[in-house]
Amino acid sequence: MNKIRFKVLKIAFHPEFIHPVKEGHRFPMLKYELIPLQLKHEGLANETNFFRPELASFETCCLVHDPAYVAKLFDLTLDPKMVRRIGFPLSKRLVDRERYILDGTIQAACYALKYGVAFTVAGGTHHAGYDFGEGFCLLNDQATAAGYLLQHNRADRILIIDLDVHQGNGTADIFEGHQQVFTFSMHGEKNYPFIKQRSHLDIGLAENITDKEYLEILNKNLLELFDRIRPDFVFYQAGVDILATDKLGRLNLSPATCARRDELVLGLCHQLHIPVQVSMGGGYSPRIKDIVNAHCQTFKIAIDLYHL
Known about the structure:
alpha/beta; 10 helices
């Protein structure tokens, strides 16, 4: 395992991340443009901190996905039912966008091995499973990056922490029964997807959960997981759709709780010297300001913790 060297911030960003694939999802796409601008505006990052990913190869996309499914994606020959399940009209540009995200997360994972923590402005495409896309996710970026680290002997025990309001059903599908990748999803029990896959550990939350209860449940389970799993790499899906302002979340949690959530995850990784890659995940508040501020808070917490 490489020795971690702190004080370097690396963030994957590509202009294709902001491609407005569907007008009804303008805000979630717009945030990928505004997050880097906000980080630069606040003096938290500059151009040297951002790197541009390449198109992930067919072979890379098949690390954790069914080659037959990936081939149909590349050829734009997916069954119409699968296209409807994904939710976006299928196009080469859309597939390329997912390939950039995959490579960005893989590169960010490698940077995390060097510097302790690294980010992907987009990503968190956790609804894509082994042989299916779903919920606006075609390919699973963190699952693929986990497969890459295992293939190249860069990690041996990986923990995927998914704190998006929606269960990481695709990630659970890919790593069901896996011995080296442990999946943990803490999500709204009655929220999408309505048919859940089985993660190694699932915690379904009631919609009336309080901020205090949420943090107590999370802290308890994180401590137990890190002690039991003893991961040598962590992937963190940091969706901000747990916020009370989120139109899809329904958890009614405060920005302070969202920030404290990030502090718990990143603080443990920093304390235990476990590299962590962070993907942004979901965020659907009507005001784009609420989404961007919450995501940028995740960066700020890491910058403070790691003295970046």
